[in-house]
Amino acid sequence: MMSARTSMTAKQTWLRPSGAVAIVMAVFATLAACTTSRSSDPPDTVTVEVILTGLQNPRGVAFDAEGGLLVAEAGLGDDAVDVRQRSGRLTRFIDRNGDGDFKDPGEAEPWFEHLASYNARSHLEQRNDEVSGPSDVTVHGDGRVFLSVDGGFEEFSLWEISPTRSIGRNLSARSNMTGVGLAPDEDIIFATESMLNQLIEVTLKTGDRRDIVAFSTLDSGQEAVPAGLAVDPRNGDVLVALFSGGVSTEDGGFIIFVPGDAKVVRVDPLTGRVVDEIVGLTTAVDVAIDGLGNVFVVELAAGQGEPFASEADLADPDAIPQHGGYLRFSGRVIMYPADGGPPRVLAEGLDAPTNITVGDDGALYVSTGQGTPGRPIPGPDGPTVIVGEVIRITGF
Ligand SMILES: [Ca+2]
Ligand SMILES: [Ca+2]
Predict the structure, then answer these.
(1) Is 184 part of a structural domain of the chain?
(2) Considering the domain boundaries, does residue 284 fall inside one?
(3) pTM recorded for the entire structure
(4) Spacing, Cα 61 to ligand 2 middle (Å)
(5) How confident is the model at residue 3 (pLDDT cuts 50, 70, 90)?
(6) Rounded CA separation 135/88 (Å)
(7) Rounded to whole angstroms, how far apart are CA atoms 330 and 349?
(8) Do the domain assignments include residue 347?
(9) 63 CA → ligand 2 middle, Å
(10) Is the pLDDT of residue 33 over 70?
(11) Nearest ligand, CA of residue 97?
(12) Measured in angstroms, how far is the CA atom of residue 218 from the centroid of ligand 2?
């Protein structure tokens, strides 16, 4: 079973003696640059638990008013022509037996299946393992659900779903939207258009779309590639994770990202003014903020792994374990305290995390396992396979 891992793990304990067991890890980690306070301060105890496993590319996670957990899954990435074979989905999970996880029989409530799912490798001739489909989800106070779906070129949606689970308007269809979020008054929904490097807003009453800002290229000249977003509940600013695109190298090669060039920016949606919030990141894929102003950032990977040979079969369960573009088990979650204190690594060694959500309970919910589900990959303890999971981080 995969779980959060950290090179600074203090101990591991089993949460429950039987059944679906979550691994609890007490983590005390600080960034290397901030280690001076470690010897004098008592370590914080951070708990990382797996609350959902066996998913197919979990992405956006959102809570509804009843405590249900809506999880968008981008699917198998198999690009099925037959819509009945499509594997993207939206599922609601509810902890019916109150044991703290969402893995027990009857706790999964399928909402929509057979949504689009494809792998960038087939569409873009990339040699990385990048699955797209249902991307992000958010819940309105009146029960409406908003779901972005990336079905590849010419097939983009931001669906408005009624509280009774009827699909309504497609609010935008111009680009893939990897992050969505509601303004504090919930009259407006924001979305990052990753391929167009833009942040947009849609007024829910009218359906009118407005471009807020087009992001400039990053320090090495690569595209910004906005990924996840978060709305600051204190003032309505939008925080956007700029993942950063690939860049050509002097020797004529191409690297898929430049370590240190990714960042989180703060956007005033009224003026479109952009200021740097956090710089020096690598593969910043999502951001979250709580009511106090603590900011949480997810990095997908710390470095590049070897790309696939062009003829590699990603669905082959007997293939040689390969990273496939991004170094597996090198993702992390970093907290930037509202009081300006030093950043803290809350979890590291995560396998390709993509999304972070602050729950109503104040805990962090992080989706992991980006890539072709079941594909052999190198793991920290030897060969393993890609498994989609949602972890919960508490105690920070
Ligand atoms: Ca349960
Ligand atoms: Ca998110």
Answers:
(1) yes
(2) yes
(3) 0.88
(4) 7
(5) very low
(6) 9
(7) 5
(8) yes
(9) 12
(10) no
(11) 1
(12) 22
- Assigned domain for 1 exists: no
Across the chain, what does the average pLDDT equal?
A: 88
Place 61 in a pLDDT band, splitting at 50, 70 and 90.
very high
Q: Cα of 102 to ligand 2 centre, how many Å?
A: 19
Domain count, the chain: 1
**In angstroms, what is the span from residue 393 Cα to ligand 2's centroid?**
15
179 C-alpha vs ligand 2 centroid, how far in Å?
6
Q: Give which of 359, 351, 361 is closest to 385, Cα–Cα.
A: 351
Q: Which residues surround ligand 1, an ion (CB under 5 A)?
A: 95, 97, 99, 101, 104
* Amino acid residing at 369: G
CATH code at 35?
A: 2.120.10.30
Q: Which domain holds residue 380?
A: 9-394
